[in-house]
Amino acid sequence: MPVLDQAIEGWVRRWRERVDLPLRVRWRAGGAAEAGPQWDLGRFDEPRVVVTIRDAAAVPALLTPSLDSLGQAYVEGHIDVDGAIEDVIAMAQALVARADEAPTQGPLRRWLRTFVHTRRADREAIQYHYDVSNAFYAEWLDPAMVYSCAYFERGDEDLATAQRQKIDHILTKIRLQPGHTLLDIGCGWGALVIRAAQAFGARCVGITLSQAQYDLARERVAAAGLQDRVEIRLQDYRDVDGTFDRITSVGMFEHVGLRHLPDYFRIIRERLAPDGWAMNHGITTTDAHDGETPHGGGRFIDRYVFPHGELPHISTVLRTMQEGGLESFDIENLRRHYARTLMHWSCAFEAKREKLRTLVSERIWRIWRVYLAGCAWAFEHDQIALFQVLCRPAGRSAQELPWSRRWIYEAHSRP
To answer: Which GO terms label this protein's molecular function in UniProt (predicted)?
Structure first.
C-alpha cells in the first residue's frame, strides 16, 4: 500500500495549513492523520468526522475535492464517513471552498440538454427519482407524503402541520373556490388534489410520470372517497387537453429544462381559463446567470439525484413566464422554509437510517442521505432558493385584481 500511503500523506500535507477542522482521515493500511494545525495545539480532542479511505479510487476526490467528487466517492463506496451528517456536510463544504474550482461547463451542458428533454427522457428521469420505493419515502416524509417545501407560519410547527399549511397557502393564493376545476402538474402522491377536493370543494386532475406515485395516489383518492372529484393520470404535461380554472405546479418545473421554460409556461397559459390563476412553486438557483450550484453540488445532483434537472434564476422564471403569456402577480421566496423542511427530512432519515437501508440498495441509501443534508445546507446558505410565483393570463384588465395581499393571510381556517 505504499503508493496509497504516499498519496494520502501528500494530501494531508497540502491541506493541513489550508483547513482547520476536527477531521481525521484513515486508510486501510492502518494509517491515520488529522487535517488541521489545531490538532497539534490541542484544540481538538476527538474528531467530529472520520473519513475512511477504502481503496485508491478515492484519492482523486481528495486531491481535487468538489461536492461532486466527494459525493461520488461516498456513493460508490470508495470512502466511508462517520459522524453526524450535518458535520459531514459542513466539513465537505469547508474542504471544497478552499479548493480550486474547475472551469464551469454550464453553457455547454445547457446546450446539450436542449436535446434531452423528450417525453421519453423526462419520463425516465422522473421514474429514476420517484420510483425508488413508496415505502422508502414514507419513512421520512410526513404522513401525507408531501415531497416539496413546507410552509412554517411560526417556525415551530411539526412537519405534517407545515405541509398542510403549504398546501392551503397555495390553494388560498390561487383563490380556489368550490366547483373550480384544478390541474396539478406533478401531483406526487396526491396530497394537494385530495386537500383541494376535501377542503376547498374543487374538481381536480393530478398528473405524474411516476408509476409508483400514480398507483399510490389513486389508492389514496379511493380511500378518501373522492373518485368523483379527483382524477389521477399517468400523463406528460404536454399532452393534457382542456382548460382549467386553476393550475398548480409544485416542485416540477425543475425537470423542464431552461430552454423549454417559455413553452412550459405557454402550455400552462393554453390550459388556463381566461380568468384563471396559476401557481408555479419551484427551486431556483441564486446564480443570476442560471449557473449550477457551486462547488460541484449541481453536478452531483445531476449525476445521482435528478438527471437532466436544471435550475433557473428567478429573473429567468419571470422573463420566460412573460414570454409564455403569463403575468406574474405575486412572488414569495420560501428559501428558509425549504431549509427547515430538509432539516426535518434529514433528521427523520438519520433516525431511521438502519431501517431505510433494508428498503433500498446501499448506493441509493447513500445518495439520499447526503442529498437531503446537503440540500438543507445549500438552502440555509443561499446557494439555492424556492419561489412561489402566482400568475394569470397576460393582458387582462387590472381592475379585477385584489388591491392588497390581505386575502392570502386572512383566509378562513379549514380543518
So the answer is: methyltransferase activity
